[in-house]
């Protein structure tokens, strides 16, 4: 059964402007440790790849927060939710700490889809209840 659905569209030009103003601190605020490592690697290779990665993760976390119905309120916060990829590329949501506990107590599971283009990143998240 569907528990919640969330979607978000992120203008990558706004992310770029925020990075210019705040620098690496913005990425450190939004990304968890594993994501930050990937972001830095991609950005070092091609600036646009790093920007798209950061924007897609920002978008996915916003969509996830909408789907669970909490927004960015406790126990949901930026570092408690990481959007990572399986070896084949499929994105998945890795939760940490109190958010992981909150999610498990409700027997929920998440599906996430990401896409980005030159100026935009979009994310779609479906939260389901696990069958009894």
TrEMBL record:
Pfam family, one: ACPS
Protein EC: 2.7.8.7
Keywords: Cytoplasm, Fatty acid biosynthesis, Fatty acid metabolism, Lipid biosynthesis, Lipid metabolism, Magnesium, Metal-binding, Transferase
The UniProt record lists the keyword Ribonucleoprotein: no
Function: Transfers the 4'-phosphopantetheine moiety from coenzyme A to a Ser of acyl-carrier-protein.
Entry's family note: Belongs to the P-Pant transferase superfamily. AcpS family.
This protein's name: Holo-[acyl-carrier-protein] synthase
Organism: Ideonella lacteola
Native organism taxonomy: Bacteria, Pseudomonadati, Pseudomonadota, Betaproteobacteria, Burkholderiales
